[in-house]
Amino acid sequence: MKINTITIQEILDKYETILLDAFGVLVYQKDAVPGAIPFIDRLNQSRKPYFILTNDAAHSVSTSVSRFHRLGLSIEAKRIITSGTLLVSYFQNHDLVGHGCAVLGTQDSSEYVHIAGGKVVPIQEYSSWDVLVVCDEMGFPFLENMDMALSMLFKKIEARQPFQLILPNPDLIYRKNEEEFGITAGSMALVLETALKLRYPDCKEREFIRLGKPYSPIFQEAYLRSGTKNMVMIGDQLLYDIRGAKNFGIASILIGTGVTPCDTLTKENPDCPDFILPSWIP
């Protein structure tokens, strides 16, 4: 059975708060998604509460605001909830404040770890860190640092040095533009996990702790800010945006501008959304 479509006006009438993914929903790598700018303008003019729930751990909130504004999207900092900000509570709840941390990602990624209380150290100094945080595929020599991360993890296992693996952004791929896709941090983590399992099948520390969507903390933060569960998540990926919303008990809409195509989706899919929205353009 086909999933019902929904219009923008119906969304605004039906839900108190709108939750939006960023990449593939509002923005691509270098441009705004067609129709996203007038939609955000409409939300701002109507004063409809909304939040951006993004698994992005490569850009700080202030960097994200500047990027949105540069692309024509008038989004304030108070409306942005990133997976990188979840590191603060995770570090506090798991006694990681003050621990040495190696970071794969951008300068903003390292700043997220620093704000959470971690001490960022070079990845090659394997005896100085016991936490590896994989945030993004950008901001460093990719192949060299992935090889270095793998080698240092092997060394730590051989030396019987405990470590933790943390992945703020579980996304595997993202949409760069209307024609191209790219891998992101979740795919990097899968590579490292597979290698660890292959070489050390009995190692207990070979899996990453995944934050961000589809897990509940990022949705809980949106609930705390909005004060209502009459929210809807509009996203482009079934496994992260839609599954996360369903698990948290809120409505979901798949938009057809990103990773997951809408035209072949049916209600038999366990991660099917409540509605589909082909694009922001009527």
Topology:
Layout: H1 8-14, E1 17-20, H2 36-46, E2 50-54, H3 61-70, E3 80-82, H4 87-93, E4 100-104, H5 107-116, E5 119-120, E6 131-134, H6 142-158, E7 164-167, E8 173-175, E9 181-183, H7 185-199, E10 209-210, H8 216-226, E11 231-235, H9 238-248, E12 251-255, E13 275-277
Parallel strand pairs: 1-2, 1-11, 2-3, 4-5, 4-6, 6-7, 7-10, 11-12, 12-13
Antiparallel strand pairs: 8-9
Helix pairs in contact: 4-5, 6-7
Structural class: alpha/beta
Unreliable stretches, pLDDT < 50, 5 or more residues?
none
Please identify, by name, the CATH architecture of the largest domain. 3-Layer(aba) Sandwich
Q: Roughly what fraction of the amino acids lie in strands?
A: 15-25%
Number of domains: 2
Oligomer state equals single chain
Strand order across the largest sheet: 3-2-1-11-12-13
Quote the distance from N terminus to C terminus. 23 Å
Q: How large is the count of helical segments? A: 9
By CATH reckoning, the class of the largest domain would read Alpha Beta
The name of the CATH superfamily of the largest domain reads HAD superfamily/HAD-like
